[in-house]
Amino acid sequence: VQLVESGGGLVQAGGSLRLSCAASGRTLSSYAMGWFRQVPGKEREFVAAISWSGRSTYYVDSVKGRFTISRDNAKNTMYLQMNSLKPEDTAVYYCSAKPTNSDVNYVYTREGLYAFWGQGTQVTVSS
Prior knowledge:
Layout: E1 2-6, E2 9-12, E3 17-24, E4 31-38, E5 45-50, E6 57-59, E7 67-72, E8 77-82, E9 91-99, E10 116-117, E11 121-126
Parallel strand pairs: 2-11
Antiparallel strand pairs: 1-3, 3-8, 4-5, 4-9, 5-6, 7-8, 9-10, 9-11
């Protein structure tokens, strides 16, 4: 599956952005999905994850209550709605996909479990 992120940009602190991750090549319903972010000089960190059906989600503590992960399998697209953005949210955001069994609704936080990655989209939050 190929993944392409979009929706990044420059926003003031307190503002909002919605990132999209469009998939092609295979139906997105075959994958659990995740969002990660990376700042230059630091390791990529987990942000949010969603099960193949969308029934299970999980967030890193620093974004709980501000970010919402969702997906539309009919459109082969995953989203990350980011509200109340802070300067420390500045990073390149990556979407990722992990093949999964439709019998379970697991979410995954470990980077190494994801097999497919997008190219990333820059999010910059000014103070």
